[in-house]
UniProtKB/TrEMBL annotation:
Pfam families reported in the protein's UniProt record: H_lectin
Any one of the GO BP annotations: cell adhesion
Molecular-function GO terms, alphabetical: carbohydrate binding
Superkingdom field: Eukaryota
Segments of this protein annotated with the region Disordered: 242-289
Protein name: H-type lectin domain-containing protein
Species of provenance: Exophiala bonariae
Amino acid sequence: MDPLSATVAATQVAELLYKASMLIRRFVKDAKAIDANLKGLGNEIQSLMSIVNSITTAFEDPTVQPSLQAAKDNAIFLNHVIALLTDCKISGTEVLLILESLSGRDDPDNFLWKSARQIRFYRKHESLDRLQARLSSHKSDLQVALGVINMLVTGHSSDRVNNSLGSKIDQLAKNLEMQLMQRKSVNGNGVGEDDDDEDARFIRHSKELIDSATKVLSRQNTLILEDIEVIDMARELDIEREEHESEFEEVEDQGFVPPSNRSLHQTQVPLPARTPSRKQSPKSVDTSVLSENGCISASDHGMTHEMGQNTQIAVRFSTPFTNPPRMIYGLSHIDCVDGENVVDAAGPRVAFDVVDIAADGFQATARTFGNCVPWDLKMSWLTLPENGIHFETGTFDTSTVRNDSRSLAVTAVTFSRPFQRNPIVCCWFTEVDIPYGWRSLRTWAARITHDGFVLSVDTWADRVWKNARVNWLAYDAEEDGRRIKSSVQIVKRHEVRNFSSPWLRDPQARDPTTFIAITELDCGPSRNTRISGQITNITGGRLIGEIGTWDDTDMDHLHCTWISIE
């Protein structure tokens, strides 16, 4: 053969190989495009999954239902979130079915298996593009929903946070308006109300979510304005409070000897309850004028060193009353483990409740919740005598006024019967729920008038608390220092101090009944939370007690309120 024939043959082979090369390049390019499209869809799904997981975590919080149902707008918003999650499930199911059809049963050893996948992809790419756009829309909706949920449940409510969330809602509303305009341009009559039209239903659900989220945000902005007024009031109250603290009795700084060995399980020795005079039989005494007191240790009644304790305690009065008495009660001793000692432990999430008060006794419940691990809880209690002193008492649960973790909870209390002059008001905790961080919480009464007062609970320095319950007592100011006396004792900086106070009546008179409970605490999170207050003795006309901490607790300060009644 001549060279020309060889040239022709070579040229033909070169052209053939060039065509093959171009086909391969084109195939690889198309395959990369498919991979890129599927990767983009995968990223969208991953991002959406992360948001849904965050919403799931938020809904697992035990306070989410009360928080979301505390107001009508919140409940409507919750219903729209559920509808949106249902839409998301429908879209996710469609995507899953298409992806399963794309995967097929091709043999990877077959060179054409990618071609088969490519053909299937091109048949489905319009559906996938539509679903990816829908998932992106769901993600935007759920991001707003998550922001509102976090604002309501975890309470990070501020002008900055609300403005940011408001911007997201505005952007979502603009995107929705664009979708509506696009549908009008295609359909000519906008979005119909037919639920068979999935896209129309999804857009309607998105619009409903925007409307409900806007109402909730507007309500939160109103609350922020109210908070600004309340915070200003709280600052004034703090000034009053500091002035009052300077009037508190100086405590005697004495060494503290912790209980032997297991101080964690030692109980306070309750003072003897008031009983009738020996010259009279109990039956001849009107027991309604008497008062009893005591201190209950939960560890003495079965509380164990584990999470989720619920210890039932039955208490019997030494002398049955004529009628069920009125009572005050509060946390006097908290001893729980920090997270460094027990996996996932948290500090103090504890409560003492009193129920079923009868003439012969009452039922108490010591509770821990979440991941709090207790050594012991103690509750001080005292019955109020019907001896002519005007007493008013009640309980403030911050969850009734506080839908989030804004630092301040305030309620206005109105007495059932006005006092003749401004009374003395004392308050203390029966429940403390601080899931993490510094254990800083306080309660106090201010703006006291003859017919009511303002009761507050808050923290400081941007610290977190979840809930609290406060018991309070108001009594005649004319009787202060006569038949009843009260004060607040303060200990600071890792000290335990004994304190004493003169009982102003005749030292030969019968000893008074006494009560003590925690009013303010401030402890670091790196050590066990161990704080306590107790009345240890009444002798020679003086009331003697001690407050403070022991062992390793990193305590900045502790305030306890005590009350004694003749």
